[in-house]
């Protein structure tokens, strides 16, 4: 089998290299990082799930000022409805942590998660964002029709073959197959069936999805360098999505303490936890995760747990206290490099991949 790094996906998305930046919602995602990856030849993605609609519009326009290349915007495709059934127990469990950070007692009546998805997606459609990607579910049919009629590309994050087939049937142009090695939240659709997410490894997931779909598959989860890119292509993917690899990039908005924790971590450092958000996410184990587990309280469902812990995460970030921040990361952190730009990372990954493919063709 002769591997081609210039896959059909590149032409479909209008990019030089089959490398996607993951849409990392929250602090890590910045206009600079999104633009830099696109300018380097990959597909930069703005993680906009927690952004207000007006802020998304402003960021999209800033990205367009910084790059003429295609880019994407990622949203959580679900309605953010709070479930406060057990909120007093959760509030009580957080008291020692809030005290540790010098935070006042929390009034649970103030907990209200933003539910902006309809307004967020409307901004993406109005701004004609080249690529719309969704996590936690598919783009609703009415929005899918609008996106397709406007000539926009739609991508969904999937964690099983069943989800991938649903995405293809709904009209998605490609899927990101997220293996259990991936950092942060993965896109499992149904949390009742998979309370801790569908935890299928990238090596097993990608070929099974690729065999069933006619649309391109983008591999994600533990991919950190050119070796991972070539391996993904050999498994049947047409590209890769990388998030953790860009967390230490100079353009990334991750807190300095977060970056230090990443560079000090190993393949054994991460765990799956619901403690921060109520949805399973992979991150570096720290005091918050340990203390929540020792307390024995069940996290509230997403997004209520996420809203409940936001003030703690923000205070920890301000204090550069990594023990109480959500340190989302995949399992390949030994392969991280400090002090590199996003462009240098993209170029390095492609050089590594080209060397592997070239040596294979010479043998």
Q: Would you mind describing this structure in some detail?
A:
By secondary structure, this protein is an alpha/beta fold. The chain has helices at 8-13, 31-39, 53-66, 87-100, 117-126, 141-149, 161-170, 202-212, 226-234, 256-264, 287-295, 304-318, 342-362; strands at 19-21, 44-47, 71-76, 131-135, 153-158, 174-178, 184-185, 217-220, 239-242, 270-273, 281-284. β4, α6 (141-149) and β5 form a beta-alpha-beta unit. The chain is globular and about 60 Å long. The chain starts with 7 loop residues before the first helix and ends with a helix. The relative contact order is 0.16.
Summed up:
The protein has 363 residues and is α/β, with parallel strands linked by helices.
């Amino acid at each position: 089998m002769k591997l081609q790094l210039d896959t059909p996906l590149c032409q479909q998305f209008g990019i030089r290299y089959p490398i996607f930046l993951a849409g990392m919602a929250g602090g890590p995602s910045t206009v600079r990082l999104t633009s830099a990856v696109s300018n380097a030849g990959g597909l930069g993605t703005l993680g906009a799930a927690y952004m207000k609609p007006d802020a998304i519009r402003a960021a999209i326009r800033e990205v367009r000022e910084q790059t003429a290349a295609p880019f994407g915007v990622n949203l959580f495709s679900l309605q953010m409805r709070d479930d406060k059934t057990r909120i007093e127990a959760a509030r009580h469990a957080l008291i020692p942590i809030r005290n540790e950070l010098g935070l006042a007692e929390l009034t649970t009546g103030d907990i209200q998660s933003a539910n902006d998805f309809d307004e967020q997606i409307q901004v993406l459609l109005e701004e004609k964002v080249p690529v719309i990607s969704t996590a936690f579910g598919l783009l609703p049919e009415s929005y899918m029709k609008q996106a397709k009629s406007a000539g926009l590309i739609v991508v969904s994050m999937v964690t099983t073959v069943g989800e991938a087939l649903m995405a293809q049937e709904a009209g998605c142009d490609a899927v990101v197959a997220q293996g259990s090695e991936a950092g942060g939240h993965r896109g499992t659709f149904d949390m009742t069936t998979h309370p801790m997410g569908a935890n299928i490894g990238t090596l097993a997931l990608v070929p099974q999805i690729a065999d069933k779909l006619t649309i391109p598959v983008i591999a994600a989860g533990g991919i950190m360098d050119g070796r991972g890119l070539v391996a993904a292509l050999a498994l049947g993917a047409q590209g890769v999505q990388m998030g953790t690899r860009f967390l230490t990039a100079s353009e990334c908005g991750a807190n300095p303490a977060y970056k230090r924790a990443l560079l000090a971590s190993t393949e054994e450092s991460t765990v799956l936890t619901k403690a921060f958000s109520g949805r399973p996410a992979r991150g570096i184990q720290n005091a918050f995760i340990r203390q929540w587990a020792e307390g024995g309280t069940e996290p509230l469902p997403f997004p209520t747990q996420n809203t409940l812990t936001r003030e703690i995460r923000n205070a920890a970030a301000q204090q550069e206290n990594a023990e109480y921040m959500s340190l989302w990361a995949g399992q390949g952190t030994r392969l991280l490099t400090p002090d590199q730009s996003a462009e240098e990372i993209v170029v390095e990954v492609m050089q590594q991949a080209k060397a592997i493919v070239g040596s294979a063709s010479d043998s």
